[in-house]
Fold this sequence. Notes:
By secondary structure, this protein is mainly alpha-helical. It has helices spanning about 5-15, 40-55, 75, 80-90, 95-189, and strands spanning about 60, 65. A hairpin with a 2-residue loop joins β1 and β2.
Amino acid sequence: MISLTILVNLLQVGLDNLLYKIIVVQLPYINKIDPVTLKQEPHKLAIYQLFQLFNPEHQLDNDKYSLYLEASEQTRDYERLVRRLANVRANHRMLVQEMILEDTMLKDFLDLENDRMYHQKLVKKQTLEIKEKDKTIKENKKTIEEKDKTIEEKDKTIEEKDKTIEENKKKLEDKDKLIQDLIKKLKGK
Protein backbone atom coordinates (compact mmCIF):
# COMPACT_ATOMS: atom_id res chain seq x y z
CA MET A 1 0.00 0.00 0.00
CA ILE A 2 1.23 3.50 -0.78
CA SER A 3 0.94 5.85 2.13
CA LEU A 4 -1.11 9.03 1.98
CA THR A 5 1.99 11.24 2.32
CA ILE A 6 3.68 9.69 -0.71
CA LEU A 7 0.53 10.11 -2.80
CA VAL A 8 0.20 13.76 -1.80
CA ASN A 9 3.84 14.30 -2.78
CA LEU A 10 3.25 12.53 -6.10
CA LEU A 11 0.31 14.80 -6.86
CA GLN A 12 2.38 17.87 -6.03
CA VAL A 13 5.40 16.81 -8.08
CA GLY A 14 3.27 15.94 -11.09
CA LEU A 15 2.87 12.90 -13.24
CA ASP A 16 5.63 13.79 -15.72
CA ASN A 17 8.30 13.65 -13.02
CA LEU A 18 7.55 10.10 -11.82
CA LEU A 19 10.67 7.96 -11.56
CA TYR A 20 8.78 4.67 -11.23
CA LYS A 21 7.65 2.46 -14.08
CA ILE A 22 4.59 1.35 -12.18
CA ILE A 23 2.74 2.18 -9.00
CA VAL A 24 0.47 -0.42 -7.45
CA VAL A 25 -2.38 0.96 -5.40
CA GLN A 26 -4.71 -1.45 -3.64
CA LEU A 27 -8.17 -0.05 -3.07
CA PRO A 28 -10.21 -2.70 -1.25
CA TYR A 29 -12.31 -0.22 0.73
CA ILE A 30 -12.65 2.67 -1.74
CA ASN A 31 -16.43 2.23 -1.92
CA LYS A 32 -16.79 2.47 1.86
CA ILE A 33 -15.32 5.97 2.07
CA ASP A 34 -17.81 8.82 2.26
CA PRO A 35 -16.47 11.74 0.16
CA VAL A 36 -18.57 14.21 2.18
CA THR A 37 -16.32 13.60 5.19
CA LEU A 38 -13.28 14.50 3.06
CA LYS A 39 -14.52 17.95 1.94
CA GLN A 40 -12.80 19.64 4.89
CA GLU A 41 -9.45 18.22 3.82
CA PRO A 42 -8.92 19.07 0.15
CA HIS A 43 -5.75 17.03 -0.30
CA LYS A 44 -7.51 13.86 0.94
CA LEU A 45 -10.49 14.62 -1.30
CA ALA A 46 -8.14 15.02 -4.28
CA ILE A 47 -6.53 11.66 -3.54
CA TYR A 48 -9.94 10.06 -3.11
CA GLN A 49 -11.07 11.44 -6.49
CA LEU A 50 -7.86 10.17 -8.08
CA PHE A 51 -8.44 6.73 -6.58
CA GLN A 52 -12.03 6.78 -7.84
CA LEU A 53 -10.65 6.79 -11.39
CA PHE A 54 -9.28 3.31 -10.68
CA ASN A 55 -12.33 2.04 -8.84
CA PRO A 56 -12.95 -1.60 -9.83
CA GLU A 57 -16.55 -0.66 -10.64
CA HIS A 58 -15.21 1.10 -13.75
CA GLN A 59 -13.72 -2.10 -15.18
CA LEU A 60 -15.20 -3.34 -18.41
CA ASP A 61 -17.12 -6.59 -18.06
CA ASN A 62 -15.15 -8.37 -20.76
CA ASP A 63 -11.73 -6.84 -20.05
CA LYS A 64 -10.50 -6.38 -16.50
CA TYR A 65 -7.48 -4.44 -17.81
CA SER A 66 -9.56 -1.60 -19.18
CA LEU A 67 -11.59 1.09 -17.43
CA TYR A 68 -14.67 2.87 -18.66
CA LEU A 69 -14.61 6.51 -17.56
CA GLU A 70 -17.47 8.86 -18.29
CA ALA A 71 -16.70 12.54 -18.68
CA SER A 72 -17.33 14.26 -15.35
CA GLU A 73 -15.81 16.87 -13.07
CA GLN A 74 -13.55 14.19 -11.67
CA THR A 75 -12.24 13.07 -15.03
CA ARG A 76 -11.75 16.70 -16.11
CA ASP A 77 -9.57 17.33 -13.05
CA TYR A 78 -7.40 14.40 -14.07
CA GLU A 79 -7.79 14.76 -17.81
CA ARG A 80 -4.04 14.70 -18.35
CA LEU A 81 -3.75 11.41 -16.48
CA VAL A 82 -6.68 9.89 -18.35
CA ARG A 83 -5.17 10.96 -21.70
CA ARG A 84 -1.81 9.44 -20.78
CA LEU A 85 -3.47 6.18 -19.74
CA ALA A 86 -5.48 6.10 -22.98
CA ASN A 87 -2.29 6.83 -24.94
CA VAL A 88 -0.49 3.94 -23.25
CA ARG A 89 -3.45 1.67 -24.02
CA ALA A 90 -3.53 2.72 -27.69
CA ASN A 91 0.22 2.72 -28.33
CA HIS A 92 1.16 -0.35 -26.32
CA ARG A 93 -1.31 -3.05 -27.28
CA MET A 94 1.23 -5.69 -26.28
CA LEU A 95 1.05 -4.33 -22.74
CA VAL A 96 -2.37 -5.87 -22.17
CA GLN A 97 -1.13 -9.22 -23.46
CA GLU A 98 1.89 -8.95 -21.16
CA MET A 99 -0.40 -8.13 -18.25
CA ILE A 100 -2.58 -11.14 -19.04
CA LEU A 101 0.51 -13.33 -19.26
CA GLU A 102 1.86 -11.91 -15.99
CA ASP A 103 -1.49 -12.48 -14.27
CA THR A 104 -1.63 -16.05 -15.58
CA MET A 105 1.92 -16.71 -14.44
CA LEU A 106 1.23 -15.05 -11.09
CA LYS A 107 -1.94 -17.11 -10.64
CA ASP A 108 -0.04 -20.31 -11.48
CA PHE A 109 2.73 -19.31 -9.09
CA LEU A 110 0.24 -18.51 -6.33
CA ASP A 111 -1.55 -21.82 -6.93
CA LEU A 112 1.76 -23.65 -6.66
CA GLU A 113 2.67 -21.68 -3.56
CA ASN A 114 -0.72 -22.45 -2.00
CA ASP A 115 -0.23 -26.15 -2.79
CA ARG A 116 3.26 -26.04 -1.30
CA MET A 117 1.99 -24.34 1.85
CA TYR A 118 -0.87 -26.86 2.12
CA HIS A 119 1.52 -29.78 1.79
CA GLN A 120 3.95 -28.17 4.20
CA LYS A 121 1.16 -27.83 6.78
CA LEU A 122 0.07 -31.38 6.07
CA VAL A 123 3.63 -32.66 6.61
CA LYS A 124 3.86 -30.67 9.87
CA LYS A 125 0.55 -32.11 11.02
CA GLN A 126 1.62 -35.65 10.13
CA THR A 127 4.98 -35.12 11.82
CA LEU A 128 3.21 -33.99 14.99
CA GLU A 129 0.89 -37.00 14.79
CA ILE A 130 3.88 -39.31 14.38
CA LYS A 131 5.62 -37.69 17.36
CA GLU A 132 2.46 -38.13 19.44
CA LYS A 133 2.21 -41.77 18.37
CA ASP A 134 5.90 -42.30 19.16
CA LYS A 135 5.32 -40.76 22.59
CA THR A 136 2.32 -43.03 23.14
CA ILE A 137 4.36 -46.04 22.03
CA LYS A 138 7.16 -45.13 24.45
CA GLU A 139 4.63 -44.71 27.27
CA ASN A 140 3.07 -48.06 26.38
CA LYS A 141 6.51 -49.72 26.32
CA LYS A 142 7.25 -48.26 29.74
CA THR A 143 3.90 -49.48 31.06
CA ILE A 144 4.54 -52.95 29.60
CA GLU A 145 8.03 -53.01 31.17
CA GLU A 146 6.55 -52.03 34.53
CA LYS A 147 3.89 -54.75 34.20
CA ASP A 148 6.57 -57.28 33.20
CA LYS A 149 8.55 -56.28 36.29
CA THR A 150 5.43 -56.66 38.44
CA ILE A 151 4.76 -60.09 36.89
CA GLU A 152 8.38 -61.14 37.58
CA GLU A 153 8.04 -60.00 41.18
CA LYS A 154 4.76 -61.91 41.51
CA ASP A 155 6.41 -64.97 39.92
CA LYS A 156 9.23 -64.72 42.49
CA THR A 157 6.67 -64.36 45.27
CA ILE A 158 4.80 -67.42 43.96
CA GLU A 159 8.07 -69.38 43.74
CA GLU A 160 8.92 -68.38 47.30
CA LYS A 161 5.45 -69.42 48.45
CA ASP A 162 5.77 -72.69 46.53
CA LYS A 163 9.14 -73.28 48.29
CA THR A 164 7.56 -72.43 51.63
CA ILE A 165 4.67 -74.82 50.88
CA GLU A 166 7.16 -77.55 49.87
CA GLU A 167 9.18 -76.92 53.04
CA ASN A 168 6.01 -76.95 55.14
CA LYS A 169 4.87 -80.13 53.35
CA LYS A 170 8.23 -81.73 54.08
CA LYS A 171 8.05 -80.61 57.70
CA LEU A 172 4.52 -82.04 57.92
CA GLU A 173 5.71 -85.30 56.40
CA ASP A 174 8.61 -85.36 58.86
CA LYS A 175 6.20 -84.67 61.73
CA ASP A 176 3.79 -87.34 60.48
CA LYS A 177 6.69 -89.80 60.29
CA LEU A 178 7.81 -88.80 63.77
CA ILE A 179 4.26 -89.17 65.07
CA GLN A 180 3.94 -92.61 63.46
CA ASP A 181 7.32 -93.64 64.84
CA LEU A 182 6.19 -92.49 68.30
CA ILE A 183 2.90 -94.35 67.92
CA LYS A 184 4.80 -97.52 66.92
CA LYS A 185 7.09 -97.16 69.94
CA LEU A 186 4.17 -96.67 72.21
CA LYS A 187 2.39 -99.71 70.82
CA GLY A 188 5.57 -101.76 71.01
CA LYS A 189 5.91 -101.20 74.75
